[in-house]
Amino acid sequence: MCCGALLRTAVRSCTPKRFVVVASRFSDLPPFSDGSDVAEALTAAACRLHETSSPDSTLDTAVRLAVDLVPGADHAGISVIERDNRRRTLAWTDEVVRAAEDGGPAAGERPYWHRLWTAPVAEVEDSEGDGGEGALSDLGLRSVLSLRLRADRRRLTVLTAYARKPRAFDEAALRVGRLFTAHVGIALDSATVREQLTEAMRTRDLIGQATGILMERLDIDAAGAFDSLVRASQRENVKLRDLARRIVDAHDKP
Q1: Where does the ANTAR domain lie (predicted)?
Q2: CB 24 within 8 A of CB 64
């Protein structure tokens, strides 16, 4: 099996981890009200995000911070959206978010998040008035502000803020939301790399074999081969050890 086919196989076997968190306040964050220092609040949030120890805890912290930082937000979630518009929730502040995000639209429907494939933001001003969003209204969610965190040809990772009031998100919420998601994306990438490098230390023999195979196949040095392996793992959302094992197993087969 070639490396490209191997990566595609690895991606198909990958399922995002699910977990639930309870919404809470961060008492040490600067007050966030009219006239407050937005930069100071975002800096404190960025520090909190970079203190997390894993991608899962980064997502956990991000959804709670979103409720505190985005003006008008009552709930928040982070999810992965597939090309067929199926949606899987990775982190949520309470069960109403999970109910709003899990599953997929009915056949032929194009939900609000479909717009995220071509735009960085998708909004629902009032779910009682927007066509096709009655399910949100039934859950008591009237406003939605959904922002891209990551994007590739097959999937999107998005952070979504929800409000119980209609037209809850104004220009200030949009501006803060976009700045905050930039911080979340950087922190998530950093946590992912740290986790991969830690795992690489634990499985260095397997990683070494895979690196050697890539050196031979791609005619590159050890540093370039390892960097290629890490980037492929991150891009395809596959654990480094699993990707290395597949490369080694494919190489050993006749």
Answers
A1: 187-248
A2: yes
How far apart, in whole angstroms, are the C-alpha atoms of residue 60 and residue 107? Answer: 32
Instruction: Note whether 104 and 97 are within 8 A (CB).
Output: no
Residues recorded for the chain? 254
The pLDDT tens digits of the residues spanning 217-249 come to 999 999 999 999 998 888 888 888 889 989 998
Q: E strands of 61-189, at which residues?
A: 75-82, 87-92, 121-124, 143-151, 155-163
Q: CB burial class (10 A; 0-12, 13-18, 19+) of residue 189?
A: middle
Which structure tokens are listed for 151? 């994007």
Rounded CA gap, 186 and 166, in Å?
Answer: 31
171-202 vs 38-50: helix crossing angle, rounded to 10: 20
Helix 222-236 vs helix 171-202: crossing angle, to nearest 10: 130
Torsion angle of C-alpha atoms 60, 84, 116, 229, degrees rounded to 10: 60
Q: How far apart are CA 4 and CA 235, in angstroms?
A: 13
Exposure pattern of 39-78 as b/e (b: 16+ CB <10 Å)?
eebbebbbebbeebeebbbbbbbbbbbbbbbbbbbbbbbb
- In angstroms, the CA 240 to CA 229 distance is 7
- Rounded CA separation 12/76 (Å): 27
Q: What are phi and psi of 103, to 5 degrees?
A: 90, -170
Q: pLDDT tens for residues 131-141? A: 668 889 999 99
Residue 100, phi then psi, degrees to nearest 5: -75, -30
Q: Is 103 helix (H, G, I), strand (E, B) or coil?
A: strand
Mean pLDDT of 154-177: 95
